[in-house]
Structure prediction request, 382 residues.
Amino acid sequence: MKYPIHDAVKKSVESGLVPTLTVYNRVDGPGSSLDLRLFQQAFWQLKNIPSDPQADPTFSWSKGLPRTVGMSITIGTDIEVYPISPGKIGVESIDFGFSYTYNVGVVPPTKENWLLKIMDTFGLDGVKFVIRNQRPELKSAGLGGSAAVTTGVCLMADMLTGKKFTKTQLIGMASMMEHDMGVSITGTQEQSAAMYGGIRDYVWFPYGVPGKNDFFGSSIQQEILFPKEYAELRKRMDIYFTAERHSSDVNAVWEHQMRMVNGFLLHKKKNNLAYEFREALRLKEWNKIAAPVEEYRKIRTQLCTNYMSEHHRLLHRIVSDYHAVCFPLGGGGGSVMVFSPDPEQLKRIKKELEQDFIYLDYEFSENGHEFINFEIIDKELA
Prediction:
């Protein structure tokens, strides 16, 4: 019996070319959590979408719809492929300390097996994925790492099997696998950022863009800052790690609040704040960014007090003294974005925050992921 993928991977590894995919994490802000499936469904309404949605740079037609601005950064995770015995598939995480191997076709759909289940879905045979964080100290830091890895496993499996799926399908698959198997409550922003990269505004379409042959995972997006403009934002935005794993069940609390009238109305305000945020970024009106960031943070905290840990509150008090704002990333993870319209003020903030928090050195990335060492694979499987 022939095992073409196993054989191609084995030949590549033996030649010193370990097939590798790097998936990058993201920074979010106003619009965070609006990508969750329940939020997309709750706030989406049919609107008159222009035949060319990009013609109006303000995207005014999208006001009130759920959206997220995703900003890909050069902190990520590597997924390497190695050959193992035909008839088996495996996955190993160096940083989280787990390693599972199953016979092909008998992977139960459990929380622990969510990555293996993706591999099995693609019909992979005789290969093992090894996952390692480029910054191992930052696991569970609120940078969207688990969702990015899930998307990366989908991308790697799709690459090995001939790119049969669309980008939208892979985004939807990654989100559903992670969410429905109980790994975490997730939506489509981390997945989309890992797919497309850059600094983009995603307007969510939970049922697909009307008239298009797609479904969950869909978005109409706009690149609101281009690579040549990244430096202008970077000098105004830092990220700090509180050295705690605070990613709690805040998404579950927010979803519970969504099901009550008062909570629904509070959540609904976030749609307009996210639009304000994207417009301030797009126009590079730096003095208008802080207001939607701070208001969004207040609403999230009002809906779930655990969103802000004691470390977050301390950091917030410090940056407020400098008339800057902060935003705990993801579902209240250990990483916090700090923004000041004044780059010199941000430098002064850094001197104080570095005493208690870990400064993360990063740049914005125009790519959401990158494949390397696929020359032999491509030739063997052509």
Summary: DSSP finds 13 helices and twelve strands in the chain. Residues 4-228+366-381 form a domain with the Ribosomal Protein S5; domain 2 fold (CATH 3.30.230.10). The chain has two domains: 4-228+366-381, 229-360. The radius of gyration is 21 Å.
